[in-house]
Design brief:
This is CmcJ-like methyltransferase. Belongs to the asaB hydroxylase/desaturase family. InterPro entries: AsaB-like (IPR044053). The chain has about 280 residues and is of the alpha+beta class. The chain has a single domain, classed as Jelly Rolls (Sandwich), CATH 2.60.120. It is built from 5 helices and 14 strands. Strands 1-3-11-8-13 form a 5-stranded mixed β-sheet, with no helix packed on it. A 5-stranded antiparallel β-sheet has the order 4-12-7-14-5, sandwiched between helices. Strands 2-9-10-6 form a 4-stranded mixed β-sheet, with helices on one face. Strand 9 and strand 10 form a beta hairpin. The longest helix is centred in the middle third of the chain and has 19 residues. The chain is globular, with a radius of gyration of 18 Å. The mean pLDDT is about 95.
Amino acid sequence: MTSSMETEIHYLAKDELFDREKPFDTDFSVASIPGARSSNHTVDTRTVVVNEITNPDEWDLNTHGFCIIKAETKLDPDDVFTRKKEIQNDYWYEIEAILHEKFPEYSRIDAYDCTVRKRDPDFPRITRTYVDYEQPARRPHTDCSQKGSYMNLEHSFPGQEEFWKGKEFDILNVWRPLIGPCDDWPLALCDWTSVDQDNDIRLNDALRRDRVDENSLLHFNPSHRWYFIRNHSIDDLIVFRNADSHGKRARGFHVSVMNPTSESPARQSVEVRLVAFR
């Protein structure tokens, strides 16, 4: 029997402010900058039902914006926090190989980021600025917009603009817990077929320490259908599309949600961002 959980999702509010000012947020402290704001977001908190994924084969990247791949990968949960630069390339190669086997339509796949998260026991009651690892993301989003996908490539592969000029590509994420089975603050995915592309999506400036990115945020729509993996195993890889070069393919809006029935230790997770050329 399919089970579900009731939880809260903190959407971006449909504020009139955004008719005059583009939404933005930062991933660093601005306390030392007089008059600076870390964000102009207003929150629309909604109680939602998130359904359990019971049959991974039902989910298709090109229809729903995400899919699940069962695959064994090797990544030491301790080393990834202390020696990430030394070990991340091997993990990248594993993920690239898995995606090539699953998606033969891609001619080339290159990983360019590895993000690890370790939930602080005080999160979300107390929020801090973390340098070594990030916290679960509480605003439904994709990591980049169509424009942001090019900004990602320019930052990660400087001087190689001629290579991707005119090419069709997708920006993908591969996400899993580092230690499982895990039920703490699971990743929830929104079925792309339930998203109103004209009214639900808002572009956002994501201000980083060294650059500006653009990603996409989600406004509330009662038609949204959310899903998660219960007792998430480290071998269950969630693959979702953030954006594509032509802005025409299904996207995987995602968010971390509190599981009120979880008995798991504080969640640790890893995600790889990749560009996949067709």
